[in-house]
Fold these 2 entries.
Entry 1:
Amino acid sequence: MKYLNKNLIIALLFAIIFSFVSCTPTQKIRYDTNDIIPVSLSPIPIAVEITEFADIREEVAENELLFKCKQNQKKIDGVKKCINSEEFYKNDKESVSFQFSKVLAMHLNQSKVFSTTIFKDTLQTTNYYLTGKIVRFYGEQVFSTSALVGAQFGLIGALATSGTTSLAKIVIEVSELKLYNREGELVKYIGDFRKEYAEELHADAYCWCIFSNMNEKLKDFNYELARKLVSELRNVSF
């Protein structure tokens, strides 16, 4: 019994650390790629560069809230929600499109879609390159009053509410995916890819975890995109 209690305490402490360390004001688009498994038994035998995708999110009306609101909380249809406001992705060196494209390249390389996948191949060691546009990277999540109450009671409260979740809506979409050869000739028009998620996800008292939830779903999105690429390109003659 003591052994079980010790493990329970460790698990709860880990949940608290996740809430207050991983969900921080400086947000990045990233996730662990070490556990990604190959999506096919044999990679498509080409080396591919992932270019930095064009960011057209501001042209899409449904994204307007993320760019206008400087806070990570907002009332939407009368309900207080956490949002992945653009304000918290601001980075002098790495824009959203830079980070998004970079993690996609890492994911595709790890999942062995192609023999090699490189982000921004400035030396042009690859013989093909993939372009695309980011249409949506949108998240909203119902604010958790339970998490807020727990936070007001310090460690004990945080322990009691460490598993708190709330309903989240996440939409990720890319468009006009195209594969070119180094001569600039279009090899394959792959098209658009979109996924929507509506489920209970980890929540915290300060609306930072909508950002880590976005990263979690981006990992799933890129997994499904990797499968789509294999399906679309498997019968192309290279």
Entry 2:
Amino acid sequence: MMLLGGMNFTMLVFLNLCMSFLSCVLAMLSAGNLRSIHKPIFLRVVISALIGLVIGSAVIKYVDGVFLKQVTLVVILVASLLSLGKYRRFFGQKHLSVAGGFLSGILTPSTGINGPLVMLHLNAALKEKRRIRSTMLSYLLVIMAFGVLSMTFQVGLPRGSWGMLAKIVLPSVAGYALGVLTFRQLSDSRYNRLVTFFLISSSLLSLIYLILYGQVRGY
């Protein structure tokens, strides 16, 4: 979000995919994380997301990425708020892993938003923070890899994309290390609440920033 005002939107999506992929690779090096993956959910979200990714890659040139991101953030914000109450069980239903994965796949090439909808389902369907985290990371690892490859070969990346990526690698790794330390200090219940709070706050702040940024740029 902080970089949005100073770079091409396509570059922003590409950098987001690359850095998320790097973080997932580092996280999944642990054997404990691999054993904690909830395989049925993982397979459902990955297969549906890959189908969505093919569609998203095909239509990326025909959509307004900024507008689509605004709409998506509104949906995530509303869904996150609903998950706090009696609708939590609804988000844990099996078919929502397929729907969340498919929509995330479609949105990945054009907006870079590929995790919140799946995370809402995992947070409602699973109780153990390690299983939630490991399943989410394994899903992201697969989707990010396909997303990066798709954008590299099918989309004309702006000049300087690879140079900018090199500049933000170290800060991203440092942020990942801080996140791991924080994760270890949280109980399962606090982790669930923190995830929901993060989804609400990040979607709200990003939406506000995009709206204000669009007004300044005259969109």
